[in-house]
Design goal:
By secondary structure, the chain is of the alpha+beta class. It is 44% helix and 16% strand. The strands form ten sheets. It has a seven-stranded mixed β-sheet with strand order 10-9-11-12-26-25-22, sandwiched between helices. It is elongated, with a radius of gyration of 34 Å.
Length: 794
């Protein structure tokens, strides 16, 4: 066998055809990956990975490998040496295996120069070395298995004829049929079973860096089947029925084995961030689904920027992971603007469904153009449809950061959407009333949002005066309470009810203002007002739990503007002016509540102290480092917008604005006189959670002429802040029993090339990747022929 293998390699490199085939392979890769403008160009795409190469290589190998294998047996048949070969004292299978391994080693030698691409991406990464070696290694494994299957098909095709051209065409056809043809048939008949018979489905998984034993078994089965077929077609013996049985039973047996082991497998995600491994929460959402979930993704089109093409690819791969967990999930990618005749109608129809379009800049041949895309998906289940956003906006983010944020958010977005469809509502939320909290219209958008997840109802504490025990018992039927900016003090009886709700394991979200001041109160003739402390009679309440909200104002240089009318009469116009009492908060914590959030806007925020006790405290949000604490009472004037701030006064550093409390709480009324008798009073709670936010306006949406606006949307600047996402995450975390919120802490980041370095050194790396592989090939050829001539000259 080894003699045959050696003979094959010698014969290949002894002729110029061998070097020509490999050179063509390297030249084509170099042109598409480094020189030609297009979706395969690594330098233009800007991503520090080789996904373009692993997408392109199967198509080039589809022609390269048949060119390598076409002479394996067809040449032996044409020269009449096959009969002599099969009479040698060696089994037919070893003859075939020797030919096969010889050709396969040649393919490996052709792939070796492509390791230079890995080095190039390594050097151009931002920073240097920013490449996922685990994913790249796994992708090469996938490419080798695909090449091994192509080689087995090519060797088989060469055994069918004594004409090398016919062998080449037959091998190309068979490779094409198994790689993409079966996938096309599967799409036409909507059969996932047929799709799994094709190579593409299995190669796509491994080419991402995910090693699945089912994919390896598939490729090994393909290789074995075609090698056994080749053995039969090179024999000179007449065909027997017993052999027919073997040739039929072998593929059928391997097919049964692949089907049987479909549910018994090991899977190894070699990517450094485990991006292609679904979280347990995601799997638990869909594992019991027994009727179809249809997902239509509108992020499709041929003219997408590279970052959005990557988002499209990651979306497809994520949905394939969901589908592999449950075959009842079906997805389609749709370009709603493909038909120019219905373009406007499609845009209007999608807008009416709440799917807002997005304008992106497309660079083509040095020219920029604006394209409209719809980065949304619609998921339908049992006649219910919900929308799923694919874009995770962040104010001030560039395209790279936008792509990274969106890809990191993908699994949560789909898991959250599918959870809404699949899981019935179970938890109950009480929106507290009775202490002059925000009006319904002012929290309308957030209430509408959480209504998709939970049962919500208004709950007043007024009945404490007459029936305190009943009020407490009624409140205990809820899982969470939300108190949105109360402005009237709580009585001791109300506080005891709230305390015992917490002791019983109830969760709570508090949004409190300890200072009386509103932006609207400044719009008077003088343009100013006095900010004074607000007494809610809750100081001892939160002090016992471990926090204190101080009646001060956070004055932060990193803040949102205020919109004021300037000028007189018809000359007046609206301007956005600096307003340092509206801090814009960037979440720096990796806690799942605040991870990967847009900027969060506060208005007249206060400061929170954390106190020592046994409760675990997590600071979720802080002001910027350029913060000044303003005490009260004090005058607040719109004249601030015209004054240049003195940075030397902003030295108080980051101040706590939102804190999460978790643990076993001690009752505020432990060893204290109770305002009323409580049946089964508790002095220590079971493990529970509470979030305290030192600003009631975080949850407040604006109300326009046509009703409430979206929470976080600034109608004057058009900016969308992350308030709604933050509060929704907070509620989900407080009530989450499926671990869904923990998906947000999964850290997935894209590796980008250094754009400046690429621009400065583009020509150098193009020459290196085009020329150096050919130099390696030439040096190898010269060395090989020198050693060969030296050997036979003896």
């Amino acid at each position: 066998m080894f003699a045959i293998l050696k003979k094959e390699i010698n014969a290949f490199f002894a002729s110029s055809i061998g070097y020509l085939v490999i050179a063509i392979f390297l030249i084509l890769n170099g042109l598409f990956l480094w020189l030609f403008i297009g979706e395969f160009n690594i330098l233009d795409n800007g991503f520090a990975d080789l996904s373009s190469f692993f997408l392109l290589a199967p198509w080039i190998l589809l022609f390269l490998i048949p060119a390598v294998t076409m002479r394996s047996f067809s040449d032996e048949k044409k020269q009449g040496t096959l009969e002599l070969l099969v009479t040698k004292p060696i089994s037919l299978f070893k003859i075939v295996l020797g030919k096969y391994l010889g050709a396969f080693i040649l393919i490996i030698l052709a792939l070796l120069p492509t390791l230079l691409y890995v080095y190039t991406v390594y050097q151009l990464g931002n920073p240097v070395g920013n490449i996922d070696f685990g994913s790249t290694f796994g992708s090469y494994i996938g490419l080798l298995f695909l090449a091994a299957a192509y080689t087995a098909i090519g060797v088989f095709a060469s055994s069918l004829t004594d004409n090398q051209i016919v062998a080449f065409i037959s091998a190309v056809f068979l490779c094409f049929f198994f790689y993409i043809g079966l996938e096309g048939i599967a799409d036409f008949v909507s059969s996932s079973f047929i799709d799994q018979l094709g190579m593409s489905a299995h190669y796509k998984s491994i080419s991402r860096g995910v090693i699945d034993t089912r994919d390896l078994l598939y490729f090994i089965s393909i290789i074995l089947v075609f090698l056994v077929f080749t053995v039969r077609f090179i024999t000179t013996q007449p065909f027997h029925k017993k052999e027919l049985t073997t040739l039929v039973l072998l593929p059928l047996g391997l097919l049964v084995l692949n089907i049987f082991t479909h549910n018994f497998y090991e899977r190894f995600d070699l990517t450094k961030d485990q991006r292609y491994t679904l979280s347990q929460a995601s799997r638990s959402i869909i594992e019991s689904v027994e009727s179809p979930i249809i997902i239509d993704v509108f992020l499709d089109g041929s003219n997408l920027p590279s970052e959005f093409r990557r988002l499209q690819t990651e979306t497809r791969q994520l949905l394939e992971e969901f589908k592999s967990e449950n075959s009842q999930i079906y997805f389609n990618f749709i370009n709603p603007l493909e038909d120019d005749k219905t373009r406007e109608q499609s845009i209007q129809a999608l807008n009416e469904r709440g799917l807002k379009p997005m304008q992106v800049t497309v660079q083509d041949a040095g020219k920029s153009s604006q394209e409209v895309i719809f980065p949304w998906a619609l998921a339908s289940y049992n006649e219910v449809t919900i929308k799923i956003p694919l874009i995770k906006n962040k104010i001030g983010a560039d395209v790279q950061e936008l792509a990274s944020n969106s890809i990191q958010h993908l699994e949560y977005a789909f898991a959250d959407g599918l959870s809404k469809l699949v899981n019935p509502k179970r938890r109950k939320i009480a929106i507290l009333k009775g202490n002059n909290q925000l009006k319904d219209a002012q929290i309308f958008d957030f209430a509408k949002t959480i209504k998709d997840y939970y049962y919500i109802a208004a709950f007043t504490l007024d009945s404490v005066q007459s029936t305190p025990q009943k009020t407490l018992d009624d409140l205990k039927s809820y899982d969470l309470i939300i108190s949105a900016k109360p402005t009237e003090a709580f009585t001791e009886a109300e506080k005891l009810v709230l305390d015992q709700f917490t002791m019983s394991g109830g969760k709570s979200l508090w949004l409190l203002d300890r200072v009386v001041i509103e932006q609207d109160s400044l719009f008077n003739a003088e343009g100013k007002n006095i900010a004074v402390a607000r007494d809610l009679n809750l100081t001892d309440f939160f002090f016992k739990y471990g926090v204190r909200i101080n009646p001060v104002l956070i004055n932060d240089l990193y803040s949102a503007p205020i919109t004021l009318a300037t000028g007189d009469g018809s000359q007046s116009q609206f301007q956005q002016l600096p307003w340092f009492y509206s801090p814009l908060v960037t979440a720096t914590s990796k806690h799942p509540i605040v991870n990967n959030l847009n900027l969060i806007k506060f208005d007249f925020a206060n400061q929170i102290d954390t106190l020592k006790n046994d409760i675990q405290k997590t600071v979720l949000l802080q002001s910027s480092i350029l913060t000044k604490i303003d005490g009260t009472p004090r005058e607040v004037s719109l004249a601030m917008t015209n004054e240049e701030p003195d940075p030397n006064k902003y030295v108080n550093g980051p101040q706590n604005l939102a804190v999460l409390l978790e643990g076993d709480f001690t009752s505020v009324y432990h060893n204290r006189v109770k305002p009323f008798h409580v049946a089964d009073i508790k002095n220590t709670s079971i493990p529970t959670k509470m979030i305290v936010i030192a600003d009631g306006d975080v949850i407040k949406n604006d109300v326009g002429r046509n009703g409430p606006l979206e929470l976080g949307f600034d109608r004057w600047t058009g900016q969308e802040y992350g308030n709604k996402d933050f509060l929704l995450n907070a509620v989900n975390y407080l009530l989450d029993d499926s671990g869904l919120i923990n998906i947000r802490s999964k850290d997935i980041s894209l590796a980008f090339l250094d754009y400046q370095k690429v621009a400065d050194e583009k020509t150098k790396w193009q020459i290196i990747n085009m020329v150096l592989p050919l130099v390696f090939l030439a040096v190898f050829g010269l060395l090989f022929n020198f050693l060969r001539k030296r050997k036979y000259a003896r």
